[in-house]
Specification:
about 110 residues; mainly alpha; 6 helices; about 0% strand; globular
């Protein structure tokens, strides 16, 4: 499925996700959320139901939790689970991360 990316799109997605992770670690959740906008648009428009989109949604949910936007974070986690179910991905690591973020929402 990666073959559906051109080089420019791949770089935007990769750098956007890396930048978002770094910005969140630096305590800049609003900037981190902004860094994910373009990669999310590319993934949603270009390729449907792939694992990268699920990972991006999980990362976005983590940022939204930091911003205390719990309902939006829960929606992203629900969507990530839908994407994983659609591609029949049952890897425990990614699902454990989703469960951990759901637990953080309840706290």
């Amino acid at each position: 499925m990666i073959r559906d990316f051109n080089v420019r799109e791949f770089r935007i997605v990769r750098h956007g996700m890396d930048d978002a992770r770094e910005l969140l670690e630096m305590g800049e959740p609003k900037s981190a959320l902004a860094a994910l906008r373009e990669p999310k648009k590319i993934l949603e428009r270009k390729i449907n139901n792939i694992r990268i989109l699920a990972i991006l949604l999980i990362e976005e949910a983590e940022i939204l939790i930091a911003l205390r936007r719990f309902s939006k974070a829960e929606a992203d986690l629900d969507r990530a689970l839908e994407v994983l179910d659609a591609i029949d991905d049952h890897e425990s690591t990614i699902r454990e991360k989703i469960a951990d973020l759901y637990n953080r929402l309840k706290d």
